[in-house]
TrEMBL record, chains A, B:
GO molecular function term, any single one: oxidoreductase activity
Domain FAD-binding PCMH-type: residue ranges: 37-216
Keyword set includes Ubl conjugation: no
Entry cofactors: FAD
Family, per entry: Belongs to the FAD-binding oxidoreductase/transferase type 4 family.
Keywords from the UniProt entry: FAD, Flavoprotein, Oxidoreductase
Name of this protein: D-2-hydroxyglutarate dehydrogenase
BP GO annotations: respiratory electron transport chain
Origin species: Aquitalea magnusonii
Pfam families, A to Z: FAD-oxidase_C, FAD_binding_4
Gene3D superfamilies, alphabetized: 3.30.465.10, 3.30.70.2190, 3.30.70.2740, Uridine Diphospho-n-acetylenolpyruvylglucosamine Reductase, domain 2 (3.30.43.10), Vanillyl-alcohol Oxidase, Chain A, domain 4 (1.10.45.10)
UniProt superkingdom: Bacteria
Length: 463, 463
């Protein structure tokens, strides 16, 4: 899809081993985990340093070719898809970790460093990189930054945004920008670091970053609680959070449990089933905190908010409980789920869910809808499963109808149409749910400043 | 300085009590704590709501009049100065705190809420607003956000940036922007919240914000340590930080102590004087942590890093020790200090200070130079005192020469020319020390998107 002259000029600026044109590589690197779009990449390039990234960006500007920045391609919004003949710039060969600073507790990562490799590096130095999620074994730091990745520890440690002390980006016009220099304090003008974080590759490519590390977490206790009523979930949250430090506060519905138990061939963790479950991980560094766990658990039982629960008695049991939550996504993959990832302000969440349940039950009685998510952050993943008898196209069409109703409610509750997955291609046309027309116009203006020829991840985030 | 027609049109959009034209008000609201520039404001307006702010911004666009957003005017870089006939928009009458959400632990503040009022509000609800500094009794939340205020707890809690869940801004073109909606998680496009934070009123006015609160801090222990050599300060930092949680790690030189003792008519806290002092506040919630304080203190003495020290035995004594650090700025005000506020990466700080001390001693032997600051953040305040015999103009001229050498070194060490005070008017011409020409050009581009007619805080941050 590149012209002969475009290809010749690309080959003139990069060594031959950096450029792959074969169909298999183009297919593999042209898509992410969404599998919603047919990949159609013109070429995949694997630059080995900032200068090579810069050369590719300048080439793309000169040739008018679109670029798709590419990390671990674990995204769920189509942000890393190349479906229009773009050149994919994979940063996977730029995977060096160096420049560890034990005083500042920072470390320099090239964009292609795998999340788990940074976690391991931190552990090897007696420290902790706390951003964690199911894809940590293949997602990359550059992609995490470009999408401001969240995950299961946000309630305690925040999003990726909080852990970036500095980043180096190549802008859409090919300039190398050193954003924040890894400093703890720097009030010298607009913070372009935070503008690049979460910009989904539409302003430029994040090529390196200085990541913050922190203390190892203390000992923790893991609990699974069963709730008869969703309306009480925030009372449970408040009771535990007032007494203890939460490391995680996750949620799933009984239907989600059914699917994960079937997929894992596991037995139910509690004798009786209830409509909702909460998985908590609590910091219990000292005896008094362990006692507080029991006290709050008892109080929740007494109040009737919780009607059963289990406290993990071993690391092994804690892992088993976590597997129930973390296994949901894999368990439902065969059902071609249609995913939404929304958030509202915490106190409005139960009301939001109740309203949405009503709408879905009324208008889409044929669909299985699974609820789970990082409820301590106000973040819900709503997954609609495809009935076996439905054709994929019909199902997708119906889901777009569902979206209309989901997002109308998100707008009414002043929530986010994408809490952590980003906007990408799949959610692009719903951006107006959360951002005003004026803000979207300003976003276009900002993009034009960094990427005047619109070569960066064209069609993602902004139409 | 407004034409009759400009004034008439302003009076048409605001009630009469919102507009003040008298010389006293214009002088008072036309300057900040710097006192470096002669105030020359055309008018001071006191809007009572977002619509009134919006009306003023639209009026300013139509009339081509500059606007200076105004909070508590406690800034130290001239960011809130009106010296060119601008209209000052004081937000002090917009000082409502409401919308407390105990689940999300957030509260809605209008821009004019005094920092101490938010701290008190949090305390009244069993929570904590941790951003704190000497000016908390008069600085305002809007100004804190516009300048990303730091202070004495950054090593533990970060800058103001970390505590803003959402903000409402009126852009330079008069649009009301709802940035981040107070959500914990929101990956729906560019984060304009972070762009406004620290933008010093050059993109628009922050009119409201949703601020995060947190748990009350645990019991703490305050220590003052005396160090013979600056080179050892980071070893002391590392030793305490590895064993305990730091709430503060502050630093001052013996000359700073001399001035503060004289101003406060206090006696020295330690029997012998040493060149450098470190003030620590450590979390000591449990007995084992109190023991750890003693152990690390002993270890520092054994290593020779520290040669004397005192551990506060009461709240009263802790306050006295803190007064030594917090009183420095007031103590030297009579000496018309020339202030710099720089930061470098923590591990390079001792080398930076040693180099800079050498330069200053060689080239400016007549000047008293005080060193103090938030050294746990890599942030130093370098204050040059005016010798009594020097004329103010000559001193300022000489200090600008000093700046050349200070900033050359900051650039060499890849540090920030403004760690927490911001750029404003006074540091504007040094922005290139920390930001590249390409970045400054991009900053101009971004400003043009939000403030196309350049009415917002003209001449601040960007020339």
């Amino acid at each position: 899809m590149l012209t002969a002259s475009q290809l010749t000029s690309l080959q003139a600026i990069l060594p031959a081993d950096r450029i792959h044109l074969d169909a298999e590589t183009c297919e593999r690197y042209g898509q992410d985990w969404t599998r919603y779009t047919t990949p159609r990449a013109a070429a995949i390039v694997f630059p080995m340093g900032i200068e090579e990234v810069q050369a590719v960006v300048r080439w793309a500007n000169a040739q008018g070719v679109g670029i798709v920045p590419s990390g671990g391609r674990t995204g769920l919004s189509g942000g890393a898809v190349a479906a229009q003949g773009e050149v994919v710039v994979s940063l996977e060969r730029m995977n060096r970790i160096d420049g560890f600073d034990p005083l500042a507790r920072t470390v320099r990562c090239q964009a292609g460093v795998i999340t788990a490799a940074l976690q391991q590096f931190a552990a090897d130095h007696g420290l902790y990189y706390p951003v964690d999620f199911a894809s940590s074994g293949s997602s990359q730091i550059g992609g995490n930054i470009a999408t401001n990745a969240g995950g299961i520890r946000v309630v305690r440690y925040g999003m990726t945004r909080e852990w970036v002390a500095g980043l180096t980006a190549v802008s859409g016009s090919g300039e190398v920008l050193e954003c924040n220099l890894g400093l703890a304090k720097n009030n010298a003008g607009y913070d372009f670091r935070h503008l690049f974080i979460g910009s989904e590759g539409t302003l430029g490519l994040v090529v390196e970053a200085t990541m913050r590390l922190t203390d190892l977490p203390p000992a923790t206790t893991v609990l699974l609680l069963a709730l008869p009523r969703l309306a009480d979930i925030m009372a449970v949250f408040h009771a535990f959070r007032s007494a203890l430090t939460l490391q995680a506060f996750e949620f799933f519905s009984d239907l989600a449990l059914t699917h994960v138990l079937a997929a894992q061939q596991a037995t139910a963790p509690l004798a009786e089933r209830q409509p909702f479950y909460v998985l908590l991980e609590l910091e219990t560094a000292v005896q008094s905190q362990e006692e507080a766990v029991l006290q709050v658990f008892s109080a929740c039982l007494e109040q009737g908010w919780v009607c059963d629960g289990v406290i993990a008695q071993s690391q092994q049991q804690a892992k088993s409980l976590w597997r129930l939550r973390e296994g949901i996504s894999a368990a439902i993959t065969p059902y071609t789920p249609y995913k939404n990832d929304i958030s509202v302000v915490l106190s409005r969440l139960p009301q939001f869910v109740a309203r949405l349940q009503g709408v879905l039950a009324r208008d889409y009685p044929d669909f299985e809808v699974l609820w789970y998510g990082h409820i301590g952050d106000g973040n819900l993943h709503i997954n609609v499963l495809k009935p076996a008898s439905w054709a994929l196209e019909d199902f997708r069409h119906a889901c777009e109808q569902v979206n209309g109703q989901v997002f109308a409610l998100v707008a009414e509750f002043a929530g986010s149409m994408s809490a952590e997955h980003g906007v990408g291609l799949l959610k692009r046309d719903y951006l107006g749910v959360t951002r005003s027309a004026e803000e979207i116009a300003l976003m276009r203006g900002v993009k034009a400043v960094f990427d005047p020829n619109c070569i960066m991840n064209p069609g993602k985030l902004l139409a």
